[in-house]
Amino acid sequence: MQGPERITMDGLDRLLAPLPEAIGELCRSVVSLLAATPGLDGSVKFGWRSVNFRHGRAGLVCAVFPYEDRVAVYFERGRMLEDPEGLLQGEHLKKGRFMRLYPGAPLPEAGIAMLVAEAIALGSGPGLRKSR
Predict the structure, then answer these.
(1) Are 2 and 43 spatial neighbours (Cβ–Cβ below 8 Å)?
(2) Which of 24, 53, 75, 129 has the fewest C-beta atoms lying within 10 Å of its C-beta?
């Protein structure tokens, strides 16, 4: 299993190489959106086949998983997040929640940004232990 690699075009290209072009484009859009969030640092995790985003105070915030037919964004503390747009799934999970994104469907940029901001705020709050 290979270790993490900070997000680079080469690393992201290698992660997405076996997948359809439309998935690669969608994944790059999501990764770019998340990478533009102040304080979030992303790294490619080849063993997990994901791009994970951490925050200095909040720890692991979310991860982007490209699949053959969709891109999933997993929020580590998803159960704690408000979700007024109904973007999150995974009610059966104890801690996290995820959203499924499909090529050709509108990318809910504002909704993703809101969930990320809330996840950072929750993870940075008093009494919450940082994920490592």
Answers:
(1) no
(2) 129
Q: Bigger pLDDT: 131 or 89?
A: 89
DSSP 3-state of 123: helix
Question: pLDDT tens digit string along 33-55?
Answer: 999 999 999 999 999 999 999 99
CATH for 4-124? 3.90.1150.200
Closest residue by Cα to residue 69 from 112, 115, 27:
27
pTM for this predicted structure: 0.88
110 pLDDT higher than 80: yes
Q: Which whole-number Å values give the CA distances from 88 to 56, 75, 78, 108, in the listed order?
A: 24, 9, 8, 12
